[in-house]
Every structure is written in structure tokens, then in C-alpha cells.
Amino acid sequence: LAKNYEGVKELNLLVGIATDKKHTYYKPRISFDEFLNISDNIIKISACLASPLNKYKNKENYSTEIYDKLCKKYDYYEIQPHIATQQIEYNLYLLQLSKQYNKKLIMGTDIHAVNKYKQECRSILQKAKKIEYEDEDKYDLTCKSYDELVEMCKTQNCFNMEVYLEAINNTNVV
Length: 174
What we know:
Blueprint: H1 5-19, H2 32-36, H3 52-55, H4 64-73, E1 76-79, H5 85-101, E2 104-107, H6 116-128, H7 146-156, H8 161-173
Parallel strand pairs: 1-2
């Protein structure tokens, strides 16, 4: 997220780099070096299970030095209230990292549809395209009210409610 106009310009530059045909690798991307050189004009959030913090946490051949730099570079770590085992384990790991690196948690929900009906439509479309994700039925990827989000946190139950409520509040601050 851009903090100011300089951050907007920097994000535009990064999107240009990420989508350049010579730089794209299957999907638009930026390198770790490019990420590590992002200025403080941009708020950096760890994102969902696809985050490098999750993907590379147990890689034996991955540089722990670069991983440590990534952990430090993020401004916030994003937990999510989904009931999938993989999400719960990642949330617990992020709580550990937040204490280790003195970073705040925020709450995300990874919204892919505005409501249950649109989620059903998305699911049908994905099946038609033969796109499947492991444990997808354990992820509610619809937009939530505050009360619905709190209820999801209670159902997930991997933290005490104070951790969840602080993460929700931190999201509102961001």
C-alpha cells in the first residue's frame, strides 16, 4: 500500500517491472532483491498462504539470510480466519514471527467474491476450467462484516480473542 504520492509512483514502477515480458516468469513478479529495495513509502504486508514467508520457511536449500531479510522487510504479517489446517499452522507461525521481529499482525480474509452466490459462481467457473485447490471448501473467500469476521475467528480458535481483535484493529489502522 502506498503511504504517499512517492509510494504511488514507486508501486507503478514495480508493476511495470513485474509485468515486463522479459521479467515475467509464468506470472508477473518482482525478485526478492527488488522487494528488499522497496522504500518506506510503501507498506509491505506478508499476504496469504502464497507468501514467501510460508513458501520458503522450511526450504533446506534456501538462504536463511534472505529469509531473515524478508521477515524484517514486511511492516505487518497477515493472519486469516480460515479453518483449514494449513492456515491455522501458518497463523501460529506468523504469531511467532511477529514476536521475534516485533511486527504487528493484521487480519485479512483473501476476498475472491462479494457474497456466497458469487463464490458459488466462481467455484463453478473454476471447476469448468479444471482449477482446483487443496481444502478449498475450508476457505470462505467472501466479503465479511465485522461480526462475521469475529465469528470466523472464534470458529478457527487458534489464538485467544485478544490477538484476533488486535489484528482486526491493526488492519483498520493500516
